[in-house]
Amino acid sequence: MKGAFGCECISAKGKKSVQAGGQPMICTPLIGQTKEELFHEVEVLTEKNPDVIEWRADFFFITFMTRNK
């Protein structure tokens, strides 16, 4: 199934791990606390061709909320 930006979507319903072709996939987190840090991480990570990228929005929003009080 195709998702946003033409990426391949993989369902993990009822499974303990996401697999592609029977092999476990590696999930790489984005933990940047600013937009610039996130864009830099994406740039570096996409060159490494990760299986899955997880955006850790909690890191981003905690910083955003503390700066905008």
TrEMBL record:
Domain of life: Bacteria
Gene Ontology molecular-function annotations: 3-dehydroquinate dehydratase activity
Pfam families xrefs: DHquinase_I
InterPro entries per UniProt: Aldolase_TIM, DHquinase_I
SUPFAM superfamilies recorded: Aldolase (SSF51569)
Listed name of the protein: Uncharacterized protein
